[in-house]
Write the structure tokens for this entry.
Amino acid sequence: MSVRAWWHKAFLVERPSLSLGLFRIAVAITVGAHLFPGFFQMEDNYLATAFKEKNGSFFPLWALQLIEQSPDWLVWTFVGLFGGSWACVLIGLNTQASCLLMGVSCYYFYALNSLHIGTLSFDILLVTLSLMYVTSYPGDFLSVDSFLRGDRAGAHAYKRLRPFFVQRLLQLQIAWTFLYTGLSKITAGGNWLTDNPYYYLLRYPPQGVVRQFPFRAWLAGQPEVCQWIELVVITGEFALPFLLFIRRTRPFALLWGVSFHVLLLVTLHVPTIFFFLFPPQLLLFVEPETLVRWIERRRTRHAQRGRIRLLYDGRCGFCLASVARLFALDLFGRLEPIDFHGVADLRAIHPSLTREGCQSRMQLVEPYGRIAEGFDAFRRISVRLVLLWWLVPLLYLPGARWVGVRAYDWVAARRFLFHRNTACQTNQCSSNT
């Protein structure tokens, strides 16, 4: 295989991008876990009254001097900018621009005061964040961006093909992180091969980087066992970067990598990146085609068992756009949208269906015969669609139905106001038969 062909296969071949959509959420959670706690003590961390430490090895001197002059109102502006962009990245709204603004905010606060976030893990997080906003791919799946497209392609965002290079770079980053940490353990002070640092960490000090966990007291008296643990850790850190890229060894490597991070969290006080970011980054090694096949199997199973039929007004632009967006949220193919105008006999679908009812509210007919309309239909849909589960507690609150039914009917009666299609401006979207 030529170098050009290898490069194309490794980085440029188009593959499903759904893994990046899932990883985007992990990145947002990790960034939020790093920065939000510091905002609760602004006077001590970022405002003019704070004791500040500058990272001259990470930032050029001119940048540090410029940001040091920030007045408090500018600091608070960046707090708002970070909060808004962070929320947009989390839900996938204007994903690329939001991710870029969130990254700029992270660099700003890091340059303003690196005292409590200036760690190697935060440096790694900034590199990861930079890889996320070079393209719009992380917004392809599980995002408001996909929802707002309003076309049927949104329903198949999980298999939208994109160049693989962003995901490959993220894979290389986590592989290099393991290799780097392994090298640091045998080259820096406290060599894990010649000394026994884990043994000393367990014994001194009693309160420090090591958590209280079962068998800690026993391990603190077993230097030989601690040396074996150190050897296993080093071997794993050197082996994982290679085992992860070999298809046959990848399942074992993923299991070992995730288990390793779980053990770190249980036994050591480690940064949040070890929990929120590294395990999801390891899961980027799962073949995206494998995830697509799993989703396709779920969709096929629902088709065989019978989908939920959603009857809507196909001559109303607002209705078409709404159904298209519901379709985009239907990851596992639970819904079967039906334009009631194309059905000769509605009673063949359900005896209680009428054209007047279908024209005034959407109708939902479940495979076992249960029927719901309007707001009640939307509540039933939210229970069935995984991507709407977060709405279920709100939609079933006491009094939610009383408000929801009236709000739905008000919007349905004036739906021409909510759509830019000129055919809807007279509220006669479905009057032509």
User: Anything to note?
Assistant: Residues 15 and 161 are 5 Å apart (CA to CA).
